[in-house]
Design a protein that fits this description.
single chain; about 400 residues; alpha/beta; Nucleotidyltransferase, domain 5; 2 domains; eight-stranded mixed sheet; 15 helices; binds adenosine monophosphate
């Protein structure tokens, strides 16, 4: 069974083609600058070099057609015909309270995703364009939607409600949803697998630290609390996002700096975080390099960032009355030994003991980086959201 996984953004579309007999990736790629002049298609077959084509691609249906051309291309392709694609899985950012798990695409599913446009105005409309484009080009091929929020739908009310008038929750669904759910679900399952223990018996804190960052408390195999909120702005400090702050700062700044809602939104989402404090970059590689070169602002940005990760780990250990496993994943979490060391350094009171040599080793494999006598097992687990999307698509379409 071959499954095409799609992550459609407003002007880009990423794809991976899986062969589910062994879960191997046959090809992957992306279409960038959709609707702009000179769109770029990058296609990477698993066994041949990458190809790049510059073209005019005005909308998502043409982008999907271009992807299918690539997948069946006589030189760069990996399929003899598009009819070899058995199902398509889509990443969808917001599933609201309706989608507690992945779902087959039908009229009702599409209606619900549309109803959620308000909660994720930048993402859900783009995902919908991807879904309708596939419908138009691959008629009759079943599609599945996998939501970033679904894993967190198990959170209890005490975790997901905000202490503001209940009418706002009832009228406008203002609550914590959490994001990166597919990643937190994948890495926690993988960790339990590697440890040879049932996930249901572990208390885990999963730290997905990439451009966006979130921490999740996983209790009895379910999300118990997570740091991102109604939107992906809350929680940890990120590359360009502020994370937690006093909400009173928003009206105060608007008043003092004469900012509009759009401007303040942009400030918190695009001009804050590592970028704002370092005055240099939102990229953790550049921050750490500058810090080691003696840049004081880069050091401050790094220290604020790691301090906030540490506080969330402590909070979630308290929330679950313990922690058995601490997971690091995503771009920064998987690659930055210095970040992991800084975070774990002050957590010895929880029984966390990092093996500095194991922590410093570079590898793409999931692995333990704590000492044998550490009460908490610290692990690096490379995330693979696409694989989880492919697996859910496989499960749901096999039954269909
Ligand atoms: P992601 O959003 O998961 O793709 O993560 C992207 C981020 O990972 C980049 O912005 C970098 O800041 C970070 N990153 C990647 N490699 C490294 C590294 N070796 N050290 C520190 N940060 C890294």
């Amino acid at each position: 069974m071959k499954i095409l996984v799609i992550n459609a953004g407003s002007s880009s579309l990423k794809y991976q083609l899986y062969d589910m007999t062994d879960e191997s990736v046959l090809a992957s790629g992306r279409v960038e600058r959709i609707g702009m002049d000179s769109s770029i298609v990058t296609h990477e077959p698993a066994d041949r070099p990458e190809v790049r084509v510059v073209d005019e691609i005005l909308e998502h249906t043409s982008a999907i057609k271009r992807v299918l051309d690539m997948l069946t291309h006589k030189e760069h392709g990996v399929l003899s015909s598009v009819s070899d694609i058995d199902a398509v899985g889509h990443r969808v950012v917001h599933g609201g309270e309706v989608f507690k798990e992945s779902a087959l695409v039908n009229q009702e599913t599409k209606l619900e995703i549309r109803r959620l446009f308000d909660l994720a105005p930048l993402h859900n409309p783009a995902h919908m364009m991807g879904i309708t484009a596939v419908e138009a080009v691959l008629q009759g091929v079943p599609q599945v939607v996998v939501f970033d929020t679904a894993f967190h739908q198990t959170m209890p009310q005490q975790s997901y409600l905000y202490p503001i008038p209940m009418v706002l929750y009832k009228r406008h669904a203002i609550r914590r949803y959490g994001f990166h759910g597919t990643s937190h679900a994948y890495v926690s399952e993988r960790a339990a697998d590697l440890l040879g223990k049932p996930l249901q018996e572990l208390k885990l804190v999963s730290c997905h630290i990439g451009n966006g960052a979130s921490a999740t408390a996983i209790l009895n195999g379910k999300s118990f609390d997570t740091s991102m909120g109604m939107t992906p702005l809350e929680g940890l400090m990120m590359g360009t996002r502020s994370g937690d702050l006093d909400p009173a700062i928003v009206p105060y700044t608007m008043n003092k700096e004469d900012l509009t809602l759009t401007e303040v939104n942009s400030m918190l989402n695009k001009h804050s975080g590592l970028l704002a404090i370092s005055g240099l970059s939102s990229d953790m590689r550049e921050i750490t390099e500058a810090m080691f070169d003696g840049d004081k602002n880069a050091r401050l940005a790094f220290e604020m960032y790691t301090y906030r990760v540490k506080k969330y780990i402590g909070a979630y250990a308290a929330a679950m009355n313990g922690i058995d496993v601490l997971l690091f994943t995503a771009g920064v979490g998987e690659n930055s030994a210095v970040l992991r060391e800084h975070v774990c350094d002050g957590l010895t009171f929880l029984g966390i003991k990092l093996d500095k040599e194991l922590n410093a080793q570079r590898s793409k494999e999931a692995r333990i980086i704590s000492t044998p006598d550490s009460t908490v097992t610290v692990m690096i687990v490379p995330t693979n959201e696409e694989l989880l999307i492919a697996r859910d698509t496989f499960k749901l379409t096999k039954q269909a």
